[in-house]
Fold each of these.
Amino acid sequence: MKLNLNLKKKFQRFFLALICLVVLIFQSDIPNLKALTMDNYQGVMVIEELRLKVPADVKAAWLNAEQEIWEPWLSSQDGFLGRQLFWDKEKEEALILVNWKSKELWKNIPMSEVNVVQQKFEDNVKAALNVGENPFQLIYEGELEEQR
């Protein structure tokens, strides 16, 4: 009787361990466990989003400086895929969407280099408008990621 009781307990433990193992194996197929952290999405296209205050009377100078300064520089950057410029007549705001092959390539561009190009842009605008300050105030800077 004692031998039968020990054997029964061993079978119970064995089956409990087997059930736990089976559950663990099937749990590995849960999407959350397969999800990658955001750092692993370095190959996913990202869109840089910029919003600027662009008054109607200086819109032409803004577009010209964008074409003369930012466009050639951006075109030479690794990972640059293109960009779109929009202007809201009622708000007198510009929306700039810059497409990058990956966030990693975009963020690898040194800020010191971006600042040099921004200064050239501002100098171009100030000379064209004969003003002392850049009239285009940055309202928002962010990024968008494609949802799948």
Note: The two ends are 62 Å apart (CA to CA).
Amino acid sequence: MEKIIIVGNNVAGTFTAQNIRFLNENVDIEIFTQESYPYYTRVKLPELISNKIQVNDLIVFKDDWYKDKKIKLNLNTKVTKIEADQKFLFIEGQNNPVSYDKLILALGSVPNIPPIKNARELVGKGVFTLRTIDDTLEIKEYLQNSNAKKAIIIGGGLLGLELANQIKNNNLDTTVVEFFPRLLPRQLDDECSFMLKEEIENKGIKVVLNAVTDEIIGNGFVTGIKLKDGQKFEADIILIQAGIRATIDLAQNSGLEANRGISVNEFLETSKKDIFAVGDCIEYKNQTWGIIPACMEQSKIVAASALGLRKIEYKGTTPKNTLKIVGLELTSIGIFDPSRDEGGSWEILKKADKKDCCYQKLVLKDNTLKGAILFGDNKAMSFVYKKMEQDVTREELMEILELYLYKCSNCGAEYDESKMEILFKALPNDWKCPKCKQLKEGFKKI
């Protein structure tokens, strides 16, 4: 019977195993992972710190799931080397190598620690990264034992902001320092990012933008940070959430081609026969992804490829995120902030309601939906997901965003909400028609 080994039980590895089993009931599937837990969701890890949830709540697939699917899971198991020509693996602490017919590397990624002075030296002594359950438990223990009062989160990405929210819920004075001039630069445009910043600051979390951390201050234990512009901030704990790096050491040391990630082709095959790679650890056409939708999409392709079906080719994944950030719904998908360089006739429909912290933006190119931001109101999400990269009309989009056209009953001038910064209802009562000075009440919705 053919034996497929998967290294890694993250989202890419686990769903690859599930997809292989869906396509083939007989093949042997075995997963090796350094993790101490079956597959769990990383998105909710910060909630573990504030005791909002317990470890068991994070675990998505319990032991029964693996038994039902006939998947053998080996926890606390480190693969140290791959012998590609002989088709076997070496396991730390085991004398006998393990053989395979097909091997799938789902090695995931590790937190990126920027080149900040003292950052690596003070890891575990007040400096932490958050990627696993064990990381989270270590942070939790440090908070309990150190009597920490002030926290700094380096990185204003999705996990960094959620982490800041949960740290604040632990009654710590919390500051986020972000290298870029706005929060969530990969998911939001300037206007929406500003709204999010205000919302986060309303929760009592300080936000410092354009902040390049130069040094972590501390002698044995953390006492604060110094920015490149000379500003200093005190801290008892520092959490670095500055992106991720693909895990490629095992592949590289075993002779597989790798650059920023493990090099794969359109069937997710590596440079060595019968070895495949999937998820955060791969690089395809000079690009890495590091997002859950890419892992899910790739897991279907690699499952088919490993079984010799090679039906589907990978074409890359459109960036998309749907999640709760500091308690607010956020969906970000595709090209949401087209630049002049991208050419073509772009059109943007936008609805911003700062009072209710809602922001909706749909991006069209040549009447095709290319991207969207939905923040604080996700009613349009299913429409957006269904219509991405498809033809849409402006009228359709206005209807979905509940944007309207108002006409002056005196001179016929139009107020098109999709092109204005302010919704018609939000205009002051004494607002007048720019053309004939007719009062607001003289306009009719059409």
Note: The chain has eleven helices and 28 strands.
Amino acid sequence: MAPLSSLRRQHVFSDKVATLLCAAVFITLAGSAFSQQPQPVQMPPPAQGPTPPPSWQQGRGTEQVNSPLAPHSAPLTAKKAEDIPVNKIKVAPGFEVSLWASGMPNARSMTLGEKGTVFVGTRLVGRVYAVTEKDGKREVKTIAQGLHRPNGVAFKDGALYVAELGRVIRYDDIENRLDNPPEPKIIYSDLPKDEPHGWKFIAFGPDGNLYVPIGAPCNICEPSDAHAQIRRIKPDGSGGEVIARGVRNTVGFDWHPQTKELWFTDNGRDWLTDEQPGDELNRVSRPGLHFGFPVCHAGNVLDPEFGKGKDCSAYEPPVLDLGPHVAALGMRFYTGDMVPAEHKNSILIALHGSWNRSQKSGFKVMQAVLQEKGAPLYKVFAEGWLEGEQFWGRPVDVQVMKDGCVLVSDDWNGAIYRISHKR
């Protein structure tokens, strides 16, 4: 019989062997199990193809590939009042201009509240401003921020409607809550979310409906059934209806004070020539009209791709050619009593100014005086923002005030000018 010490040594040795054997089995099994688990998929590196061009380059011909023309990058800050050279603005005879408000980065579309508040939307900074006036002094308040392309603003029954890229929201009782705005209510969200031409101008028509345009998501393309149109909806967001098609990009419209017909500006396509096509002033004489995009531009220019084999006579022609690449935006019928009778019911149009033209055009406010017969008389109402080939301001929208004066917004300077008739 082996000594006890020897048995103990054998037992310890056996325990060590068993432990090592167990560990080996565990490692083997674990390795086998691990090898049976799904392994991360090794994705191939992304294709190194060409980067898609920005949307504004779409539609360029081969001769334009190296063109230096490009959209003007808007400032995201506002100039100080003392740095805005209002004295350079020249207005029509009998009128005068002054700086009405400043300090609003990217100030664009305007609407007027029942108590005289001027609400101002923006395209790039996500804010909505409210400008109030008391004892001749004006105060600018930011009543909303963090929104997505809140360009369009409209007012009805005490509520402010704001059009973002993909929806329309409403701020109730807003003029009584400028210092403590309510949470907005979403009233309409059935809108495409394309960034190109996705910012909107909105307004209430004489029928009580809210009109919402949807631009083409491109420079030139065949739009879907949800694009290149003007819709109208009820104030609660119901009853959506398309009233005009073939509209490339309207950022301004109004209704004739007497006929109640809708008139709108429309931006022409880019990358044809310096002189073609012109922007348009259009009239919706009845719902359902098609205004030509993408087949026909400015009433007489067939598109080289989408117009092949087609005829411009099949589409509604513009009332007026506003000039090539001038970026006609906000427009209003003048209904005030401040000016002489010949200005009554004329149309004021803000030309934001060209980028797709070797010699700049636009950068002014124009006036279209309607005639009993023939095209409107088209003339300059305010200019001076463009000096040679350099511009220092860009008109965006016009708003007729209760006292008859006209406000003009300028997103380049973050300001609003007041044009009034000398008494």
Note: The domain at 74-421 is CATH 2.120.10.30 (Neuraminidase).
Amino acid sequence: MQNRLMDVVEKTAVKASVPAFEIGDTVDVHVRILEGDKERIQIFNGVVIARSGVGPREMFVVRRIVQGEGVERKFPLHSPRIADVTVKRSGKVRRAKLYYLRNLSGKAVRLKERYTVTAASAQAKAAKAERKAAKAASRKEKAAATS
């Protein structure tokens, strides 16, 4: 009985659209904050250093440097307090947890950027390959005409 009830609660607690981000990504987390009867959105930006949990219990940790001090904040992914998570840049990492960043300072904290192939960059590559093929064909024609 209790397990079935927990399954129902977990299914309803999960957000419909979960933003896609990974470990090492620099993200802006839009957090809803209640001040009296007013509600505002505050942005917490930093590097995602960990993700844990599954389903409605999934959490992620974001770390940033404020006035020379490291500040980490843990967010529940499916919380109604989280308005949005936007990815600013993707970091190239080979680990699941980036706790080693706590011991680094200055430029050493920066991660290499992971570049993703977009539709525009794929089209540009295809156009470049076409131009290269056309140039090679014209060279062959000139070589055949001169010999």
Note: The radius of gyration is 24 Å.
